[in-house]
């Protein structure tokens, strides 16, 4: 599988790909340059004064200056004004990021160990791929099925915890067509670093087409549709087809295999067992593997499950 990647075009920060990014970066660079200028002023003055007024002879004495009101007022007021300005720079983008426009396109997001599911207004559910229209506000309404996760899209400068039993939201308006990365940024377990998704920013017309295509082109033979779904629905993050063990057992030679479960029982893999494994994965847990497979109930249509079964039969 291709790992989603982040476009970098400056030394400190990723590419700006949302309307928020510019505002956040302005705040970042305002604080950054303020820091640099004052560092140079203060250490510069310190070094200069230490050298200039160093004690040269035994008789050298500093003149008895207690204070200098004009100087002290100046060096207090200027930083005060700068700090107040920085506060408003931050406040402005915070408010902008907090309030989604009323006409936002809403997508539901579920985080779980270790994948992301995105559910569109028409009920289309997509795993580990978030397609969004370019130039239109999108609001994510997020929750977690298990532990604390956090959704982070660096190029959009948005980040928010995803919490079980609670809805949190973020919104963005994407400005660059193309792919970028979405990641989980709250350590959530052994598969945390695989909890990645691709964000696809599409032109409005391509976006409509993408939504239509999600259940797969209807004229594909079942094995091919199954192969497509294996990659698209994230099965590939946990199941290999070449025999190598990942989070879950390999699909190589799965059909007809005599599988042993953690309770010691056995079953020969057939259509019903595969269907059950997809819809109710905890019913039979393969020996030697943790019971971490998420259920795909409600996320795969019957036609898609049939296609996956047809594909698994071909993986020898
Ligand atoms: C987060 C990782 C993960 C994802 C994603 C995942 N699985 Fe699994 N799967 C597992 C694990 C772990 C097991 C073994 C434990 C168990 O049986 O529950 C398993 C078991 C299975 C089994 C039984 C395998 C056997 O050898 O008996 C099937 C079939 C299966 N998964 C199909 C799928 C399909 C199809 C998808 C995609 C739609 C998928 N899985 C996505 C982790 C995952
Ligand atoms: Cu996570």
Automatic annotation (TrEMBL):
Organism superkingdom: Bacteria
Subcellular location: Cell membrane; Membrane
Cofactor(s), by name: Cu cation
Gene Ontology terms, MF aspect: copper ion binding; cytochrome-c oxidase activity; heme binding; oxidoreductase activity
The organism of origin for this protein: Chondromyces apiculatus DSM 436
Domain Cytochrome c: 221-316
Pfam families found in the cross-reference section: COX2 (PF00116), COX2_TM (PF02790), Cytochrom_C (PF00034)
EC number: 7.1.1.9
Membrane protein topology class: Multi-pass membrane protein
Residue ranges of domain Cytochrome oxidase subunit II copper A binding in the record: 102-213
UniProt entry tagged with the keyword Iron: yes
Family annotation (PANTHER family): CYTOCHROME C OXIDASE SUBUNIT 2, CYTOCHROME C OXIDASE, SUBUNIT II
Entry keyword annotation includes Phosphoprotein: no
Domain Cytochrome oxidase subunit II transmembrane region profile: 5-101
UniProt keyword terms in alphabetical order: Copper, Electron transport, Heme, Iron, Membrane, Metal-binding, Respiratory chain, Translocase, Transmembrane, Transmembrane helix, Transport
Regions crossing the membrane: 30-51, 72-91
Annotated GO biological process: ATP synthesis coupled electron transport
Catalytic reaction annotation: 4 Fe(II)-[cytochrome c] + O2 + 8 H(+)(in) = 4 Fe(III)-[cytochrome c] + 2 H2O + 4 H(+)(out)
Protein name: Cytochrome c oxidase subunit 2
Protein family: Belongs to the cytochrome c oxidase subunit 2 family.
Gene3D superfamilies referenced in this protein's UniProt entry, alphabetically: 1.10.287.90, Cupredoxins - blue copper proteins (2.60.40.420), Cytochrome c-like domain (1.10.760.10)
GO cellular component terms given for this protein: plasma membrane
Cofactor: record remark: Binds a copper A center.
Function: Subunits I and II form the functional core of the enzyme complex. Electrons originating in cytochrome c are transferred via heme a and Cu(A) to the binuclear center formed by heme a3 and Cu(B).
Stored PROSITE patterns: COX2, COX2_CUA, COX2_TM, CYTC
CDD domains: CuRO_HCO_II_like_2
